[in-house]
Amino acid sequence: MAAYVIFQADIIDQEQYDRYRAATPATLAAAGGRFIARGGAMTVLEGEAPAGRMVIVEFPDRKTALNWYHGEEYTAARALRANAAKTRMYILDGID
Questions:
Q1: Which position among 7, 47, 61, 88 has the lowest Cβ density within 10 Å, counted as fewest Cβ atoms?
Q2: Terminal alpha carbon distance of the chain
Q3: Residue-wise pLDDT tens for the chain (96 aa)?
Q4: What is the pTM of this model?
């Protein structure tokens, strides 16, 4: 069953965040993930919009998503983002 990583970032340091953003796609490709949405236009239908940038990434399953997150390549990319943004990240299971 597919799993989705939902990422929200309220960017504090755009230059540093851009370094993280440039490093991340290769880590996804190596782990079998793919972008579904990456900072596109958003229309709020109910409630309040999340702060900042939204990204959705699809993985084949939850285990693959967790392996990517904890893997050496993405851990190094994540370090680039450490003080560049306030973030929230979740894994959401898809449906069969």
A1: 47
A2: 6
A3: 999 999 999 999 999 999 999 999 999 999 999 999 998 888 999 999 888 899 999 999 999 999 999 999 999 999 999 999 999 999 999 998
A4: 0.90
Beta bridge partners of 10: 86
The answer to whether 71 and 31 are in contact (CB under 8 A) is yes
- Amino acid letter, residue 27: T
* Tokens 């990456």 found at: 38
What are phi and psi for residue 21, nearest 5 degrees? -60, -35
- Tell me which CATH code domain 3-41+51-93 carries: 3.30.70.100
| Cβ-contact 95, 63 below 8 angstroms | no
Q: Closest by alpha carbon to 61, among 37, 28, 33?
A: 33
Structure tokens at 39: 């900072």
SS3 state of residue 29:
helix
